[in-house]
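testing teh design pipeline on a random one, pls ignore if ur not involved
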């Protein structure tokens, strides 16, 4: 019976080690997901449309040099944007373009 006890003990130890390794590996996934995908509105990479220059605005999808310059000119003529939606008052930014950039911009 002694050999069976030894085999059983080793088998139990192997299972415990495998379970512990699986637990450690799986517990790392939520942390990795949070680092890779910050919550919308919480990103530090948002472009402030009230302070960005034309070059910074061109980093937004669909915003080229002409529209970026119009955003800056509109801001100079009318003052700071009060809401993100106000950027739709700039010629060349309609609903479709706004939908593409709304999660990438801020007015704060």
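output:
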């Amino acid at each position: 019976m002694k050999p069976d006890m030894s085999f059983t003990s080793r088998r139990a130890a192997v299972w415990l080690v495998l379970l512990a390794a699986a637990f450690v590996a799986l517990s790392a996934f939520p942390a990795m997901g949070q680092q890779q995908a910050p919550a919308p509105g919480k990103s530090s990479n948002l472009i402030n449309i009230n302070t960005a220059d034309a070059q910074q605005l061109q980093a937004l999808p669909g915003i080229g040099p002409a529209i970026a310059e119009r955003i800056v000119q509109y801001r100079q003529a009318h003052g700071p944007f009060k809401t993100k939606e106000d950027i739709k008052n700039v010629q060349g930014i309609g609903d479709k373009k706004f939908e593409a950039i709304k999660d990438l911009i801020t007015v704060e």
